[in-house]
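Worked Example 4.2. Consider the chain below.
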Amino acid sequence: MRRISWLVAGGVAGLGAARLAGADRWRLLETPAVPLMSFTPHVAAASLLGSVLLPRRGPAAAAALAGAALAATVVPRALRQPQPGAGGPVLRVVTVNMLAGQAAEEPVVDLVRRSDTDVLFVQELTETAMTRFKQAGLTDMLPHEAADPRPEGGRGSGIYARFPLTSGLTLRQTYAAQPTARMRFPDGGQVDLVCVHPHPPNPPLSRVKIVRWREELAVLPPPAVPDLEPPRVLAGDFNASLDHAAFRRLLRRGHADAASQAGRGLAPTWSPWGSPALVTLDHVLVDPRCEVLEFSVHPLPGSDHRAVYAEFRLPG
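Applying the procedure from the previous section yields the following structure tokens:
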């Protein structure tokens, strides 16, 4: 029992140390560390549980220490953050990953209708899925689009919008389509939109995949320059959680994670088995001057992701 207790405590402590040290940045450890980082909230909970259940004081203390350290990085995501007083229009967005076009279109269209969504970001968009969306009435509500479906079902993406779209930011060529557009509101205000879907660091893992994933996150645009550029919204399947060093580096450039701002940063959006969702890979990043009003996740039958809804007020 003593050996088992120390084995459990050592395991959670080791994972905690890897997260705190950003081990997914290190070449020798990145292959196992990248997928494991997604489960940091689970490790934090397991550590705190182990501190109570482990029968020996030494292992229990080690688990408690690891749990406390990880909780310091995880708990703030569940606490609503103070919001700036934005004076611009309210924008409602939804982002969905269609799993190579296999997800059901009706729940997406219903969510758009119920939430009065202004912009829908779609990853893994196929031409067949676009046809199904149209038949389900999506384009009646969001008539403007910037779509790039691909023959390879996992690489297409698109943006559907309530108001007119023009050319957006220029991004370099990436593994999957990442369309951009600029939307103009009836009052003349504008917002830049980016549908995000970097290369997934999926099994079988290799350093080539991880390097490409990290590079495609690194080249995503920073927030807009205040008073010179329209605010920017980056939404989609980032294939990364807040516990990945590459994603935290993106946030340090100035973006705000809408889920964390609303106290919903621990809401899971993806599972390797489809259901239940276990980790948070889908995000809506907004200008730090935005006032986040609401955030929620919703089931998406036929996909291994959940749909994500965010409502926020843009800066004036």
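The longest strand covers residues 90-97. The mean pLDDT is 91. Compare this with Example 4.1 before moving on.
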